Amino acid sequence: MKKTTTHLFLLLLLCAAAAAAASSSSERLPVSPHGGLTDAEATYIKQRQLLYYRDEFGDRGEHVAVDPSLAFENPRIRSAYVALQAWKQAILSDPKNCTADWVGSDVCGYTGVFCARAPDDRKIRTVAGVDLNHCDIAGYLPEELGLLADLALFHINSNRICGTVPHKFDRLKLLFELDLSNNRFAGKFPAVVLRLPSLKFLDLRFNEFEGTVPKELFDKDLDAVFINDNRFRFELPDNFGNSPVSVIVLANNKFHGCVPSSLVNMSNLNEIIFMNNGLRSCLPTEIGRLKNVTVWWARCRKGSAGW
After folding, report:
1. How many CA atoms, within 13 angstroms, populate the side-chain half-sphere of residue 99?
2. C-alpha span between 229 and 101 (Å, rounded)
C-alpha cells in the first residue's frame, strides 16, 4: 500500500510539473503550422500528453462530450466518433486541414477514415482503417483510439506526432498494419505492439525511440519490421532467427555484438539491412543457406570497426 501511495504521489508531482510547463509554454510557444518541430515544441506536446495520465497504466483521456442530437448508425460508429474527436482535440497543428471535416456523426466520411462491413456482423459498418500519411499534423495519440476495435490499418507516417504509443492500442485485436514512421515518438520500444495478435507489418523508423528492443519481437508472427533510424541500443538476441519476416531493417541504430547463428533459420527472409550499427563482422558460417535473400546491406558506420 505504501509503495502504491508513493508511486501516485510521485506521479502527481510529475503531472503538476508538466502542467506548469505546458501552461507557461502555451502562452509563448505556439506550435509551428508546418515544417519540422523544434525540440521545444516536441517537449511541449509530450507534456500535453502527460497531463492526461491518470495512473500507472497511462489512462488518459480527452473527455469527449457527445452531442445528444447526433444520430449514429450503430454503437461502433459512435465509439469511433469519440475516438476520432479525442484525437482531433489532441492535434495542435493541422496545416493541410486533413481533419477539418472531422465534424458530425458520419465518421465514414471523414478524410483519411475508411469504413467496411464489420467482420463479425456483416450487417453493420465500422471503421476499418485510418490513413493520415503526409498530413504534417503535430500532436499526440490519445488513449481513446483504443475504441477503434475493428481497426485493421493505422498509417500516420510523415507527421509531427510526439509522445508515446497509447497503452490501449492493445484493444486493437484486428490491427494488421501499423505505420508510425517519420514522426517524433520517443521513449522505450512501444511494447504494446507485442500484444497485437493480428499485426503483420510494423514500421517505427525515423523516430526517437531508445533503449533495448524486446526479444519477444522476434518470436512474433510478423512479415515486415522497420525499426531503423532510432536510438535503439542492444545486442541481437539468440532468438533473432525465430522471426518469420521477409523484410527487416535495423539500420542506423546502435546495435552491437555479433549476428546470432539463428539467422540461418530465417527461411522467409528476402531483405535484411544492418548498416550503420555497432555489429561486429562475425557472421554464422551457414549463412549461405539463406537462399531467398536478395538484399543484404551491412555497410560500416564511418570511423567504426563494426557495421
Report:
1. 24
2. 34
Cα dihedral 28, 31, 34, 36 sign: positive
Measured over the CA atoms of residue 40, residue 46, residue 52 and residue 54, the dihedral's sign is: negative
**95 grid coordinates:** 496545416
The three three-digit cell numbers of residue 16, written as one number? 503538476
Residues in the chain, how many?
A: 307
Give the cell for residue 76.
461502433
How much is the pTM?
Answer: 0.82
Q: What would the 3-class secondary structure string for the chain be?
A: CHHHHHHHHHHHHHHHHHHHHHHHHHHHCCCCCCCCCCHHHHHHHHHHHHCCCCCCCCCCCCCCCCCCCCCCCCHHHHHHHHHHHHHHHCEEECCCCCCCCCCCCCHHHCCCEEEEEECCEEEEEEEEEEECCCCCCEECCCHHHHHCCCCCEEECCCCEEEECCCHHHHHCCCCCEEECCCCEEEECCCHHHHHCCCCCEEECCCCEEEECCCHHHHHCCCCEEECCCCEECCECCHHHHHCCCCEEECCCCCCEECCCHHHHHCCCCCEEECCCCEECCCCCHHHHHCCCCCEEECCCCCCCCCC
Closest CA to 163 of 190, 136, 129, 145: 190
Query: What distance in Å separates the CA atoms of residue 172 and residue 167, rounded to the nearest whole number?
Result: 11
Q: Express each pLDDT in 191-234 by its tens digit.
A: 999 999 999 999 999 999 999 999 999 999 999 999 999 999 98
Query: How far, in Å, CA of 30 to CA of 138, rounded?
Result: 11
Distance from the first to the final alpha carbon of the chain: 49
pLDDT at 61: 54
Q: Which of 21-35, 63-77, 285-299 has the highest mean pLDDT?
A: 63-77
